[in-house]
Amino acid sequence: MTTSRRRSGAGALGPLHLDAGPERRELALALRELFQRLEMPLRTYADKEARAASSVSRALSGERPAQEDFVKNLLHDAGEPPRPPLSEEETARVWALFRKDEESRMDPASRIRLLERSRRELEERLRELEGSRAAADTDGTAAELDSLRHRLHQREQELARVEQERDQLARRIGKLLAEAGLRDGRGPVVIRSSSARWYDPEARPGRGWYWPAYADLLARRGWQASRVADLDEATDQVVEKLADPSAAEAYQAKGLVITPVQSGASTHITGTVAKAVDAGYRLVIVLTGPSNALRYQLQRTLDRDLVGRENILRGAGESEDSEYVDDPDWFKADGFLRHGRRPASEGGFDIVRLTTRDNDYAGLRQSLGLGALEFEKRMPQLPLNDPENLHATSVRLMVVKKNKSILSKLVKDLQSIHPPLAEIPTLIIDDGTEWDPGAVNTHRKATGTGKAGLTSVQAVMAELLGLLPRAQYVAYATSPFVGTLMDPAALEDLFPRDFIVSLPRPAGYVGVEDFHDIDSDVPEERRTFANSPEKAHVRNLVLRDKDDDQGERQAMDMFVLTGAVKLYRAARGGATYRHHTMIVHSSDRIIRKRGQAARLRRLWDEGSYDRADGLGRLRELYERDVEPVSCERADGLPVPESFDELAPYVVAAWSRIDSDGNAVVIESGSTHGEHGGYELDFARRHIWKILVCGSRLSHGSTVEGLTVIYQGPRTDSAVGLAGMGRWAGFRIGYRDLMRLYFARVPDDAGGGLFNAFAAIFRDQLSFQEDLVRYAVEVDGRPQLTPAQVPLLLAQHLGAVDPEERRNALFNAELVEIRSPGRWIEPLAHPVDAAAKARNVQQWRPLLDVLAEPRVLSGRSTSLRARTGLVPHARLMHVFSELEGTGPQLRLHLPYLERLGREPGGQWLLIVPQPAGDGSTASVLGFESLPLFRRARRADRGDRFGRITNPSHESAVEAAVGRADGALSLLGAVLLYPIHEGEDGSVKEGEADPSQIVMGVGIYTPEKEEGPLLRFRSVRSP
User: Fold this and answer.
1) Positive or negative CA dihedral for 138, 142, 144, 150?
2) pTM of the model
């Protein structure tokens, strides 16, 4: 190990930092060797480099990652005379260690960018080597030729090495792309029913107008060609499953598009509408949530990116009637779409808006007149849907709040127009499903329209669909757990019977998994800012009581600091930050929101952000929190060397937030400042504010520049849980600055909203991973159709037993699931004490096969456990006799049974051993059985949230993969004895079996073997 003292009495370097990972320690040791060549005191070198001495010290100790310019300058100085020059190998080694450390602290998407850069550098090196090899191939003297042959041999060796390294990089990039959900071909997941193919835009030259214009607009805004191509594919997957608008026979296709929360659903909607109108759909109805802000945002997006200036103006002058003359994007070249002239005059077709930015649908009698819905026909004797008429007819577009009164006006107007409604190809986009948490009338009472089981809004929507036989219904949701799938019998009119499309996580997207250690295999005690998203971004605070304002103070200070870092980055050529926002979740009651706002305004006024005491408080927070996190996660963005470098921007950020004397505002969920609330118009103004919010902001509406979220003991739990999705989105240029504050008082029941949301997200993620597996066709036939998804969803959630509730709507029953290569984890276990004791009795004989503890090693983790081999028949008998595990185990049993068709099959039984002096007890005569603690979830019928440990799973998978073939090993079972008794209930080392749940995880190796699901038909009652 390199000595930790500099020569010539220059003073001692501090020891290597205890928390530095192996990559960081290697780099720090190499940098210390370089620094010792300088024979210079640390402070002197820091002054020479215009850096803080503490910053240099931290880089050399491994406490903070070294910046690239610091390494470059140190390499230069260490090889300057009178010191001996550094060899190419020494320099290359330091840079290799730097890249290794840089890569170790990056998320997959960031590592991809780093590796792509390395690959480009290698490609350039390859070209240089090829050139030098060609130059070496010349005539000359014998000595010269020997020298050239030697150089050529060296070049060949280096060329082979670089080519090998390039190929390794390509493989690593491919793996990381898969981890990040960005692999080529990892497009939308589609569950579909059979349908006739009709959509082929390439076969209809001259008919494409709005999609090419939209794709060109996105390219001019800086979208990469691959990103536009991904959107092209994703929208094709929807449009091709709609009915042919010109078909002689009418058909209503219905589908569901599942998008990651805050991932740009409006972009997908715009692309889908563009392709649909190009294909011939002539009435487009877009439904939004019930707030003005939601309708405003989507209307503006469609006007800007699809309708275009010429269709908006319709011959008016620039400043006459357009509602967008005060919108900055109206005059930008890459803002509102420009067709050049009205499309109809250029051989295309116009889009006529029946709603505007500021005006929802009000009924045509009171506004444009019924003639606005009268579709012109070039050939009156032919139906409107005939191609001769269809492609010469203008599109009617409306963006409408999902409101019974408004939709009823539309129904009434449609009933009054002249063209037969059966001839109008209609597309209905429902972007308001997130507002349907109580969509199903579970009491099955008839509504005013006589439609049993539906809310009033859904009844009107059903009536609308009934009027328009050629209407296609496409719902958008951020979760598969929507009413149409959860209760298809009640929502038959809206059920996505034709297709379900699940869109992948887009590039640059920040999701829930980026803030939570979901299924992390890093032990909790080893988690750092570099390897733990939760440690980097989430702050769990315990307050004295509800009046303690220290949580709000810290979150507010973080908001000011992160705003200062944004300004610092902008000054160094980074992105411009038009918006910087903080959300404080409060209540839906306006009086509660006003009280919260008053409390925050008092804290703001007392913040002293331009005085010594306030700056001292921010310095401590910066050095404790902002700097160490950003050093690990800034992904190459500028990070101030010290708080002193940041201080001028602190005052600038404070001034910008308080520019109008009102740093804290109440959001109104409106574009008109309802109830004295603040108008959140991110298009027309720069917003640097603290927003006090209720649940109205929690669905659909996008908060730009969101950096800090706070919820404390004064937050209504429903508002807090509904607003969790606000974390997600595109955080370009400040992803490392995101902070989520969860404050609670000591007597709270655990302050578990964050974990509750993570559990819900894990359910969604697991289900969508299942959809990926089941979307693969086997022998040309789908394994899963939309009609069968509710059955899969019901067993997945464990809320409904398929045997107790068969799908009466589709007369089907799910009877088997195969999961090779996937863990089977039954989360339902009995609550009844007697049933728990009987399950322990079933497991007890199998415990006798367990040997003394040994270590199972995985790729990056290890597991100390007792293991033994269990014959297949004995294990299957236990599984079949267990009580209370429900369909999550029963549906897998036929598959598990068949694995033992050949005699001699065995299973590896594994009982993890507790670390240190963890709890053990005697159970039914078996000594020293480890006892674990796991929590049940009340929102899932007292199922457990998670039983197995991801790091244990990794070690077990590796052990199964290395197993001797002679063992006939079929798979492995992780067994967790979960103690549910009170602390101290284990008497004299003996645990009561009635207080123990035997939790299991079951793993079988990946094998190619037919469909993964099996359904059977059932007779209708």
Assistant:
1) positive
2) 0.74
